[in-house]
UniProtKB/TrEMBL annotation:
GO terms for molecular function: transmembrane signaling receptor activity. This is PIGR protein. It comes from Turnix velox (Little buttonquail). Its main location: membrane. PANTHER family: HIGH AFFINITY IMMUNOGLOBULIN ALPHA AND IMMUNOGLOBULIN MU FC RECEPTOR, POLYMERIC-IMMUNOGLOBULIN RECEPTOR.
Length: 336
């Protein structure tokens, strides 16, 4: 059976005499870290013949032109096949276990006369309940094309969010696609990470089915986490007030902390530690205290209105890193 704890590219193309690298990503459980990793090729009988494995085995036909590197801390192993031949074309499996049929994903390798180099997926590591920031490739900011984030699967790329306002059900309140920067690049921010978020993704401009200006990302969510479970759900009444703590990495050197209001994969800044306060929140919201040592800051809101109900993001930002977390505010309407 194919396991959800393993994922990686399902199609690779290489040119005769060239090389390909197949990255495989797995859950960082103690068993997975220490078990045998393998790469095998399907033969006519339906048997998968080992090409290389972490036991030190290499098939005679591949000696000197295949390598397997395992990185158990990141939950990745990569197989590189060099000096490609026409007969290297075929179906392969990368997997974990003592046999070649327990836990694996399949890959179709095509060897051609000349192939366009394809970039390997960028590995992004995130902690369970934590957050990640993904930098997506630059496009022309003048064109105004929609930006998207989708998850790669067997039959294509399933849309998760775009800047037209679409957000998938499992991502409500926890994904934000930023406006384009002057370079034309943009970021995808995701928080309240779940184990099932691990996988291969694609971000870019236009349509997920096009191949221009797109980035493939491997997101690995690691189980070890000291972060509090989120999102939090808060409740208050019209005219009421509340305060809550926002958490970030105490080791991070953040220049700015902020609160923004989330809606349809966009987050409007309400208040930050540089003195900004949104016009409609003046006198109603403030960042009251901040403790870098504990990795927390406190936000106070008052004179709450019915339209304040919804998702909010706490954020702590440095030049290269942005830590975010989400919470939902419910406003109880008074009885007539």
């Amino acid at each position: 059976p194919v396991s959800s704890t393993l994922y990686g590219p399902r199609f690779l193309k290489g040119e005769v005499g060239g090389s390909i690298t197949h990255p495989c990503f797995y859950s960082t459980t103690p068993a997975n870290k220490h078990d045998r990793k393998y790469w095998c090729k399907m033969v006519q009988s339906g048997f998968c013949q080992t090409v290389v494995s972490t036991t030190g085995y290499t098939s005679k036909a591949h000696v000197g032109r295949v390598s397997l590197k395992d990185n158990p801390q990141n939950g990745t192993f990569a197989v590189t096949l060099m000096e490609l031949k026409w007969n290297d074309t075929g179906t392969y499996r990368c997997g974990i276990g003592n046999t070649n049929s327990n836990m694996y994903i399949s890959l179709n390798l095509t060897v051609v006369a000349d192939a366009v180099d394809s970039e390997p997926p960028e590995l992004i590591l995130g902690e369970l309940h934590g957050s990640v920031t993904i930098l997506c490739p630059a496009g022309d900011p003048q064109v105004g094309e929609k930006k998207f984030w989708c998850k790669l699967g067997r039959t294509g790329c399933t849309l998760i969010a775009n800047t037209n306002g679409y957000v998938g059900r499992n991502y409500q309140g926890r994904i934000f696609i930023t406006p384009q920067e002057s370079s034309g690049a943009f970021k995808v921010l995701i928080n309240n990470l779940k184990k099932e978020d691990s996988g291969l993704y694609k971000c870019g401009m236009g349509s997920p089915s096009s191949r221009d200006r797109q980035q493939v990302v491997a997101l690995q969510v690691t189980a070890a986490s000291t972060l509090p479970r989120s999102p939090k759900f808060l409740s208050s009444t019209i005219g009421g007030s509340l305060s809550f703590k926002c958490h970030h990495d105490p080791k991070g050197n953040y220049q700015k902390k902020y609160l923004c209001q989330w809606k349809a994969a966009h987050c409007s800044l309400l208040v930050d530690t540089e003195g900004f306060v949104h016009e409609s929140y003046k006198g109603r919201v403030q960042i009251a205290t901040s403790s870098q040592e504990n990795g927390t800051y406190r936000v106070e809101m008052k004179d709450l209105r019915e339209e304040d109900e919804g998702w909010y993001w706490c954020g702590a930002k440095s030049e290269h890193v942005e830590h975010t977390s989400s919470l939902k505010l419910l406003i109880q309407k008074g009885r007539c």
